[in-house]
Amino acid sequence: MEEIRIGVYICHCGVNIAATVDVAEVARYAGTLPGVVLSRDYVFMCSDPGQDLIRKDIKEYNLNRVIVSSCSPRLHELTFRRVCESAGLNRYLFEMVNIREQCSWTNEDKEANTEKAKALVDAAVRRVHYQEPLEIKDAPYNPNTLIVGGGIAGIQAALEIANSEHKVYLVEREPSIGGHMIQLDKTFPTLDCSQCILTPKMSEVGSHPYIELLTYSEVEEVSGYVGNFKAKIRKKARHVDVSKCTGCAVCMQKCPYKTDSEFELGLAKRKAAYIPFPQAVPNVATVDPNICIYIKSEGKKCGACIKSCEAGAITAETLLHQTDEIIEVEVGSIILATGFTTMDPKLIPQYGYGKYDNVITGLEFERIVSPTGPTGGKIQLKDGKEPESVAIVHCVGSRDKNYHEYCSRICCMYALKQANYIKEELPDADVYQLYIDMRCFGDGYEEFYNRLSSAGVNFVRGKVAQVTDQAINDEEAGKLIVVAEDTLLGRMLRIPVDMVILCNAVEPQADAGEVAKRFTINRKATGFFLERHPKLDPVATPTEGTFVAGCCQSPKDIPDTVAQASAAAARVLSLISKGRITLEAAVSVIDEEKCSGCRICNLLCPYGAISFIEDEKKSRINEALCKGCGTCGAACPSGAITARHFTNEQILAQVEALVS
Amino acid sequence: MEVLSPYKEATDVILEAGGEPLKLCYQCGLCTGICPWNLVRSFLVRRIMHEAQLGAVDFGGEDVWTCVTCRACVQRCPRGVEIIDVMRAIRRAVASMGIGVVPDALRISAKNIAGVGNPLGEVPEKRNDWAKDLKVKQFASGTEILYFPCCIPSYDPDVKTVARSVATIFNKLKIDYGIIGTEAKCCGESIRKAGQEDTFQSLAQNNINLFTSSGVKTVVVSSPHCYHTFKNEYPELGGKFEVIHITQYLASLIDEGKLKLSKKINKKVVYSDPCYLGRHNDIYDEPRKILQSIPGVELIEFPDARENGLCCGGGGGRIWMDTPKGERFSDIRVEQAAAKGADIVAIACPYCFLNYRDSVLSMGKAETMQVKDIVELVAEAI
Q: Are A217 and A254 in a shared domain?
């Protein structure tokens, strides 16, 4: 057997480690351990000179095991594995010890830290004796991509990828793509018409040869792994033959049954047979089975749409017998662009939403202002009158530990934009912004703030305490009174207005938790999807091959969303372009001689990587699916399963050192 | 607690009176941080801007009249708010609409200016008496330069020396100049800042008509306040003349070699930048150039000079109002000058002259420190 020759490196991490761990002492101690031929301490092991040091030593001292004691393996394990590989040493002969997060940062007692660091290094030294070189394998990468969510993020990512002539499945649960952006009238700070800049992209998606658009559909199940995912998608029954539907909307005119329009946020009605908005993509009708009386009466009543549909797209057959369809797609990468929802302002009863007619949300105001909206773009109160004064209340449920601690990031700017709508249409109307801080950080945003200031919008610094209709003088009679402290004057302020717009918080979709589980990704404390690294990798998730874009990851505005979506697309394209996927070698294997075929492991494996071979009555692990979690190995009653790189000998050697 | 509601009518009055720039204010408070009043008392400029935005200004309060219009805040306002215009608009609202109280001292000066054309209440016929024995000719069409000394050097017995020095220098150098008739009136700069817009308009029209009908092309002034309004405000009202401050004129004569200063003045001289010459009109170098051309003069600087120079306290109509001891900026300046060992505080503005003179006297420093206009030093050194 080959002689074990270990090199141990103790990193100072500047003063991060060296200030509270006696690194020289740890290095000296490491030098006394069996198998260690050299041990050093160095100021920054991750620096180029630090890396060179390891390479040089491997050659000069003929090292066949390397241990670096520094920071978390999450940060630099890959760095040092590559260093070893570049010097001809298999990456699995490297071991990392974390003496920063686990020693120097947790405790100021230098002596105790040093002792702990020594113990951890000892454990690693004992472990590496049992480490073996492992062979790294490749698998082909499926160039198709699944994008979930058809808002601006999903649209942008889909077009970026499809334009490189790679297939995209774009799944949207609503009848049309467009997301929140298509509901907006204008976008800040340039005041581009939102629909005008989005609809060309929507129709491009609708007709793109490389995009398969699956609207009114939801992903139900995802299996597989990076490069080779499988997704089951439910195409909900539209009760319309979409191959025949021309989008003529006659069914919509003839249909006698109405419900609140989701697109108009309940400010207008839609029919049971409907196209959600005129520029919908795809431009096909949907029949809502919960409203359609024909469906509910099992064909006994109505049928107006059937009679009116010249194209024959709506028939008794489609209405009564069309069912949801489950399709299965195979993709290499997934981009989640599932967007956001807004907080229900009724949760803050003192703001009077739902109680007073003219307390509305920002998104509702967008619909009111939109020329295609319920008032044809006319800014008016519920009774049809023009408001003489409007208060825009910031931070409704944002920056508030009773609701959401985070800043929703878009409200300051859309509040300014909405003030602009009002000032343009009703120049004499008084507009009050009730803010805590004006956060206008983007390109051209501060200038926009400046512009609205000069337009005479009133800025009052103070979080609104309540909105009431209880007048205390004649001037307040018949008005909504916004009550706040003007914190810049240190005085209580009562502002009588006709309309109150609430900037209610951006929050995760109601089913974000289920979606995260379905795609095996995690969520942050805020409920938004967790990115791999908040600064350096805000696009990837810890699940390989699964990316996030837009507001499902955190509240963000359109420019940031588009940038993130393009970045996600770029990441996917780089994987597609590489064309194969490197498989982790530290996975489990079953010694078929020892396997009794009990199938305990089959059920435990969270990745579905273990199958049972009926003929042989043995279990077998698909190495491409296995993540090396070790669950099966721990559970196997006959000791037939070995988790490579985490063998019993390796773990026990470590434990032995730590308990001795 | 007293509850406030926005009072739009009051805001509109201020906006209409020229307070439009206040819309831009985003309440950062830099103005308050810079305002010299906060060296001696609390004066929250930021707060006044916000009160004006909400129409909640205390029109009857003292703060309305406090600003000296020194421009320290405007110079650095990150939103470019013309804070002086806002202050002026608030005062204008008080003065014209009677919604507050104009302080007594200011009311008297305003009455004098409106009545006899000068703040001192002196008879107009004596406006040119300062020049009586100096062989100064009356300006006539074709005269190259009109010298306009400002009301204070024209009437104030102590400050007359400023006008007289100018005449002495011009006579020696045989400059083709004259003074205008006694129909001339106060330039109106400060009374406008004090909110008396109608008075200003009438003064300006009077002077513009007089200058124009007399054929004035070039005016040399002693006061930076006259300079400011002639140069920056009269043109809008139809008065278009070349306006030169005396320090600019003398500096150019030195450059051309026409003015030679030969007599030694062996003194330490500290120069105080007038707000209306410096921050308002960006003239910093010419006065220093003149002082440095005087043999023997050691020119020293205040700790905060040029753009950061401290106001004497006399702008915006404050020259006519009483500032209590302990709150006078010129007192701070005299202390600073004494600490630097200055023998002479050189000024270039009649308001500075008055304020520094009072400070030196009231602080008992008259034995060791003199206050002199630059032109006096030039007249001595010529």
A: no
